[in-house]
Amino acid sequence: MKNILLFATLLFGSSLVQATVQGKEVTYTADGTILKGYIAYDDAIKGRRPGILVVHEWWGQNDYARKRAMMLAEMGYVALALDMYGDGKQAHHPDEAARFSAELAKNLPLAKARFESAMKLLRHQKNVDAENIAALGYCFGGSMALQMARLGEDLKGVASFHGGLATEMPAQPGKVKAQIISFTGTDDPMIPAEQVAAFKQEMDRAGVNYKAVTFIGVKHSFTDPAADEYGRKFNLPLAYDAAADKASWDETKSFLADVFGSK
After folding, report:
1. If phi over 0 gives left and psi between -120 and 50 gives alpha, with beta otherwise, what is residue 136?
2. Which of 141, 136, 164, 132 has the alpha carbon at shortest distance from 68?
3. pTM confidence score
């Protein structure tokens, strides 16, 4: 009986520890547009800690972006899955996604305003160290996070997962404050080898502290378990890759510890 009670106590206690990771919806604005994000944190951790912005795929701020925010919260960070489209809008077809993302790609000041509004919200959280902010982005979000780094946003680090690397506004020497890491796959037709090579040249010329990781035989959207379904449904070259997902996440953990000086 004592062993049973001990097991129940340990199990219950473990549940309590896990339950300390909280997630909640937040609303903020940029230039009069209502934006709907999702913030995650571990309320068992006392004091301020680094904050991380999670920039969504072209599908919008959905469950996948929130999942990544929760994973970051479990690591001890405060994470905000931001809303780049406005009003929490999500795309359910590639045509919609292409239209939503193109609106921002063609209007960089608008994208910058929405990114900065989310960053301001994150910085003002009472449990966030405002001097230690980073950004992670996926697909469209990876491209957007990289572009914010190119523009000189005050970020410690930027990690791009299967995000496009091309830009019409390349990084300039002395402009980029963030340390950068990018993850792409060799079998991703959306990010061909030529684009990766051009990105490396751009970063080298600008003197950026960066690392470009390429996974052999890996396709686009390799970190998202829903990629296989999307690929079949819409005949897109998408595929989840569990090994690349794990490898990129493990490296990101080390990357974040490094940029925040917590090693």
Report:
1. beta
2. 136
3. 0.91
Question: Do the beta carbons of residue 149 and residue 105 sit within 8 Å?
Answer: no
SS3 content of the chain, % helix, strand, coil (to 5): 40, 25, 35
Select from 26, 122, 142, 19 the least CA-distant residue to 78.
122
Q: Are 150 and 175 in contact (CB under 8 A)?
A: yes
Residue showing tokens 């690349």: 244
Q: Say if CB 125 and CB 51 are below 8 A apart.
A: yes
Residues comprising the chain, all counted = 263
The Cβ-side half-sphere exposure at 43, using a 13 Å CA radius, reads 8
Per-position pLDDT tens, the chain of length 263? 444 443 344 344 444 445 589 999 999 999 999 999 999 999 999 999 999 999 999 999 999 999 999 999 999 999 999 999 999 999 999 999 999 999 999 999 999 999 999 999 999 999 999 999 999 999 999 999 999 999 999 999 999 999 999 999 999 999 999 999 999 999 999 999 999 999 999 999 999 999 999 999 999 999 999 999 999 999 999 999 999 999 999 999 999 999 999 75
Hey, is 169 helix, strand or coil? Answer: coil
Determine phi and psi for 162, rounding to 5 degrees: 40, 40
**125 burial type by CB count under 10 A (0-12 exposed, 13-18 middle, 19+ buried):** middle
